[in-house]
Specification:
Layout (H helix, E strand, L loop, with lengths): L4 E15 L10 H21 L9 E15 L3 E5 L6 H8 L7 E6 L3 E4 L12 H11 L4 H15 L14 H13 L5 E4 L8 H16 L3 E5 L3 H7 L2 E6 L2 E7 H11 L20 E10 L2 E2 L9 E9 L3 E12 L2 E7 L5 E3 L2 E9 L7 E11 L3 E13 L38
């Protein structure tokens, strides 16, 4: 391995065994355990003799969170790691931070690692913020003298001065992540691993955190940043890796990787029933597909100068007295606009439904946009899923010149030019 390579992964893989519980038993006695073990042993023996695949148990299967991953990261690089939920991003960081061991392959790391993977990792709820700074700093490898020297700077960055001597179990999630990131960032490690925990903080703290990671990178340290915020990835990172279903599918400069990411999820006709929705309503509605139509036919590439239609196909598992579906549009991680299928939450009967959105012409500019789906049931039940699908608008602008196609979206407006009679203006000579 070259001297300037600080992280090297060679055929890295991580396998988990997933159990599928068919029915929940109230209790298990010894004879059940003995009988099940005997049946499994006989079944595996027969499968081995007949050349069949060997299953570990009645209701278990293999799941490869990572498989055959190879890459090198040089010292001082800021690398973004992107991909859909379940692509293997967090598993990779857990292996790099030595939280878990790989099933196959190996990873070589030359340098001290600090990681911020989960909110409050290494914190003790009964201890105060002051005590947890010393505890968490020690866990991350800082000496007591080093923590004492940077203590005031850590507290100022986390903005928790008033609550410094309060047990952290009373902290909000935002206060937790501010304090955790402040300690990790001031460790001044050679390698900093950051998962998507900064989303918990407010906008101002996210700006400070991104600035701090940028400062860390400018000092020649290496940063690995997992995020669904493509705008932050573009601003902060020079290189990026794209993961899909546990495999590294693309790696290169950040612009090329983001383009590959958008192209990978550009198909609007694909099934999204396995998408990862979050929130209390996540298991109340299933979604089948998102379809985009232009000119009455399904289209994967759209003409921005023509109107089009987006259809969201779903299935409600129960009746809702009031429900609202929101379709949000993003570009480079920036929220551009939202469309709602009702003015106010309206009743929805159990069964299949379609939410249809008609978008006028000349609104979107050429490029890639991503779609997200949100659900809201009064007073406070919701569900959300990002990266549902993507809109791909062609560069064909017809007769309109390129200098009139700037920006991200088009605004419906009227304009008027008022020409004054310059000859009757008394101040013209003075000018």
């Amino acid at each position: 391995m070259e001297s300037d390579v600080i992280i090297c992964a060679d055929c890295l893989g991580k396998k988990y065994m997933i159990g599928h519980e068919l029915e929940r038993e109230r209790y298990i006695v010894l004879r059940d355990v003995i009988g099940r073990s005997a049946r499994n042993f006989i079944r595996r023996s027969m499968d081995m003799l007949r050349g069949r695949p060997i299953f570990v148990g009645d209701n278990t299967e293999e799941f490869w969170a990572l498989r055959d991953v190879n890459f090198e990261i040089k010292r001082g690089e800021v690398v973004g790691i992107i991909g859909r939920n379940g692509a293997g991003k967090s598993t990779l960081l857990k292996i790099l931070s030595r939280i878990t061991e790989p099933t196959e392959g190996r990873v070589t790391i030359n340098g001290r690692v600090a990681s911020l993977l989960e909110v409050g990792t290494g914190f003790h709820g009964e201890l105060t913020g002051r005590e947890n700074i010393y505890l968490n700093g020690a866990i991350l490898g800082m000496r007591r003298a080093e923590i004492r020297r940077k203590f005031d700077e850590i507290v100022a960055f986390a903005e928790i001065e008033k609550f410094l001597d309060t047990p952290v179990k009373r902290y909000s999630s935002g206060m937790y992540v501010r304090l955790a990131f402040a300690v990790a960032a001031h460790l001044e490690p050679e390698i900093l691993l950051v998962d998507e925990v900064l989303a918990v903080g407010d906008a101002e703290f996210q700006r400070k955190s991104l600035g701090k990671m940028s400062d860390v990178a400018k000092r020649g340290r290496t940063v690995l940043f997992v995020s669904h915020n493509l705008g932050a990835i573009r601003r902060l990172c020079s290189h990026a890796f794209l993961f899909d279903r546990g495999k590294l599918t693309f790696g290169g400069n950040v612009d090329a990787t983001l383009t590959a990411y958008e192209r990978l999820y550009a198909s609007l006709g694909r099934v999204i029933a396995n998408m990862s929705f979050h929130g209390p309503l996540a298991d109340q509605i299933r979604f089948d597909q998102v379809i985009c139509k232009q000119g009455g036919t399904v289209a994967s590439m759209l003409d921005p100068l023509r109107k089009f239609q987006i259809e969201v196909h779903g299935f409600a598992l129960r009746r809702f007295s009031g429900l609202e579906l929101k379709l949000s549009v993003f570009r480079d991680g920036l929220h551009i606009a939202s469309c709602h299928d009702t003015v106010d939450p309206a009743p929805l009967h159990a069964g299949h439904f379609i939410s249809r959105f008609d978008i006028p012409e000349d609104v979107f500019r050429p490029g890639m946009y991503t779609l997200a789906i949100g659900l809201y049931e009064p007073p406070s039940r919701w569900a959300w899923c990002s990266e549902v699908a993507a809109l791909d608008f062609s560069e064909n602008l017809g007769e309109r010149s390129a200098d009139r196609s700037g920006g991200v979206v088009g605004i419906a407006y009227t304009a008027q030019r008022i020409q004054q009679n310059v000859a009757n203006c008394s101040h013209v000579d003075a000018l």
